[in-house]
Every structure is written in C-alpha cells, then in structure tokens.
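User:
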Amino acid sequence: MARARSLAEFQEEFFDEESCAAFLFKRRWPDGFVCPGCGERRAAALKTRARLYECLDCGRQTSVTAGTAMHRSKLPLTAWFWAAHLMTTHSNGMSARQLQDQLGVTYKTAWLLTQKLRRTMVDPNREPLEGVVEVDQAEIPFREGDAFFEPGKAGKILVIGAVEVIDRDGNQAKPRRKHAKYLDTRSGRLRLAAIADNSAASIETFVRANVKPGTTLLTDGHASYSCLSGYRHDPRVVGAMAGHVVLPWSHRAFSLLKRWALGTYHGLRRKHVDTYFNEFVFRYNRRFYRHVSFETLLGLAARHGPLSYGDIVNRDNPRKDVGRPRARRPQHMDEPESTG
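Assistant: Predicted structure:
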C-alpha cells in the first residue's frame, strides 16, 4: 500500500543507493525475484556488482534497473528518487530548470530526467473512461525557441480532452440525472491529447483509444461526434450560453491546463507536448493523494522500457555503426547500470 511521506521521512528512508535499490526490488518483484530468462525464483545477490542478481538455475544476471526507465542511467538512484519525489509532490510541478537547481546537475541532465519520468506517467494497463464522459476541444498557446512568451504572438495547439462525470456522494461513474441535468457531480479521471484538426477521424481516434464503448458522451454537438458508433451521444449545443456552463468539467480541466503551462513552464512548446499532457493528466488524476504518487511513478517507471536521449529527440546515435553486425553478447548477461 502506497503511503505519503514527509520530507524528513523521505530523507530518512531513501538516504543511500542501497535503500533505493531495495525499494525498486520490491516494486519490480513484489512476490520475490523472478528470472526474466527462465522464470525461476532462486537468485543470489552479487557482492562484486551493485544491484545485480544471478539466477541460480540458468545463470542469467539481472540488475534491478535493467529494462526499466532507469536502464543504463549514469545518475545515482538517489537522484532519480529525488526527481520523482519533487515532480509528484510539488503543487505546481517541476520544470527542468528548477530541477537543475534542486539536484545540482546540468540542465541537459535535468531535462532528460524529466522527459524520461513524464514518459512513464502513463500506465500501460490503465482502464478506459466509462459511465458519463464530457468530451471537448480547446486551443492552448505555445511558444517557439527560447524567446519570452508573448500571448499575442503565440501559436495555438489544438487539444482534445475527455473527463469522467462522477456522482459526488456515491463517488461512482453513474451520476444522478433530472431531465437533462446531472445533479451534484464532480470530475473524475482525465485524458488529453493534441490533435491535428477537428475532423471526425481525429476525434474518433482519440475517443476509441480512451473511452469505453457504451459510454454516454456529453459534447457540444460538433458534427464530428455524430459518426461515433457504439456510444450514447448526448449533445449539448452551446449557442449563446457560456461553454463552461454546458460542459463544466472539461472546461475546468482546460483552464487548469493553460494556467499550469504558463505558470510552471511559461508556455509549452509544440515538440514533446504530449509528454507534458501526460504529466498534467497524472497530476490531475491524483490530485487528492498527491503525496503518495511518488511510489506510483517509480512503479510505472519499473514497467516501462528504457529510452535513450536519441529516442526522445528522434535522433540517430552517431556512435552506432550503421551496416555493421553487432557482436552477440553472452545470453546470460544483462549489463548493470553505472552508479557514478
């Protein structure tokens, strides 16, 4: 069971590499070590190599961070833990510039660390939204380069969002309804994505990826929603009425997103914008228990595959030989990460 930690408790529990490695071991193998090669459970910790375990049946050696978001990282585990703690518990989030000052690392290191953590904020096994879901689109400003953000000269990113409408008393995705109005509701889980346009194809792709079939969709009556089959459509034409009155929870989420983007990052850039949406959704969906989100983030990081800097910026690694067959490594070895 995840639990909240004060700053003093965090420092006391994760004070060195060994304590961090022990925590990751429990998160990765909650029922005990399982060899990724043969599936057996007998293993021995190697004293000569930090965080490395050798299977006693097949001889394969596996690090607690091998194959995770922390794979081959040269940062100490304490830096990863501090970064995850700051990003999840800070009320307004943590930019790379702020993390650089907090951890005492270079800006490039802090930026890469935040990007890797943001990419692990999406649970690969998360359940789709269900019940009654508001779906709407909005435009948010973005900036280019390192110039100061000027709202009048900023471009626009088209974003689509879906938010569950929850009954406040029963805390269920089945709000009470009287005629056309839902009574005493609050917002539930949120999903966001950038889309190219308001076409039916773009909207349908987002809805089918994030909303369970059979769900009631509350929309503004846009023509692109009419082609969605398998959903109950409840259009609310805005007309002269303010949009936040007709679709209150989606508009509140968009408003918070804009203020968060301008306040923490001074405007988002179009590149990597989906990763920032991942962070906002992660924080929004855990807004009532923010201080226990640290364990969730590291648990998700343990289930995500490794990403290099080249993967994130979509750039080939010049050190890799093109066209040359790579030497085969011993089948029983997983190279552990450096702790330096």
